[in-house]
Amino acid sequence: QVQLVESGGGLVQPGGSLRLSCAASGTSFRIYSMGWYRQTPGKERELVATITSGGSANYADSVKDRFTISRDNTKITSYLQMNSLKLEDTAVYYCNAVVARTTGGYFEVWGQGTLVTVSS
């Protein structure tokens, strides 16, 4: 029904910037919120940022004031602008969407992940 595809990952130096994109595709879906999560080996997947359909954003303390989440006016693409990147930002970043069911309720959809490596 819904698929998410991330892009924009890569290698960046500390202090640099990178923008991730998440494109949603499918049929018969309405997305309530979208978010970005990240995961490194040995750690649980953690929240980076989320944004609701109304544009309300939430950030993890570790990335606030450095990262910005946004979504386009179609509500099917989200972006994560990452500035002042640190070594500890290195992770696989996953796009997430909370999708409204046509029959009621919601379910989550995850992207495949895109690797962000912050290294000198």
Give a nutshell description of this structure.
The protein has 120 residues and is mainly β. Helix content is 0%, strand content 57%.
Instruction: Specify the number of helices.
Output: 0
Shape: elongated
Residues in helix, %: under 10%
- The whole-number mean of residue pLDDT values reads 93
Q: Major sheet, described briefly?
A: 7 strands, mixed
Low-confidence stretches: none
Radius of gyration: 14 Å
Q: Structural class of the secondary structure composition?
A: mainly beta
- How many strand segments? 11
The multimeric state of the shown protein is single chain
The N- to C-terminal Cα distance equals 40 Å
Order of helices and strands: EEEEEEEEEEE
β-strand percent reads: over 45%
